[in-house]
Amino acid sequence: MEAQAAVQIEKHVRTLPDGKSQQAIVANGLEFDRNGVLHVSDTARGAIWKVVIGPDGKGGKPSLLAQSPLLEGADGLAFDIRGDLWVVANERNALITVTPNGAVRELTKNGSQGPLEFPAGIIFVGNTAYIANFDTPRRDNMDDNGKTARDGIGASIARIMP
After folding, report:
1. DSSP character for 28?
2. pLDDT in tens, 49-77
3. CATH entry, 14-160, from 2.60.120.260, 3.10.350.10, 3.40.50.10700, 2.130.10.10
């Protein structure tokens, strides 16, 4: 079986707050809504894209659902039973929601001592969200001095009950 490109989101490179490092991670997390529309987290832009997938499996032109500083480091995605998109923002140790009309809201955020520690993936089981954290001693891309994440708690799973 051969992999084929289904959707292309234009490349984007951002300069991190240290003024030296650059990051070009665009398409990161993927999740389909209940109507079959693909949502893609764009880590470099702090954005969420929507893509309608056709019967041939190819995506249409991506449309921007939301872009916000709150979405910096957007990674894993999951929809709750109300249809809101939950986004883990690993660069910020934050959990964000995006409504179907693109309104962005921060639900929670913490420093480098958890329970969100470079959150990477999220899944719902009923009304409970489980978040996989991938924390290792590393520089914090959103910090000018790049040292704030070196004291984290390590890899973990957080549970959030909305």
Report:
1. E
2. 999 999 988 899 999 999 999 998 899 99
3. 2.130.10.10
Nearest alpha-carbon partner for 45 in 32, 26, 70, 62: 26
CB atoms < 10 A from the CB of 18, how many?
Answer: 14
The two structure tokens encoding residue 25: 């991670």
Cα separation, 17 vs 37, whole angstroms? 33
pLDDT band at 150 (very low <50, low <70, confident <90, very high): low
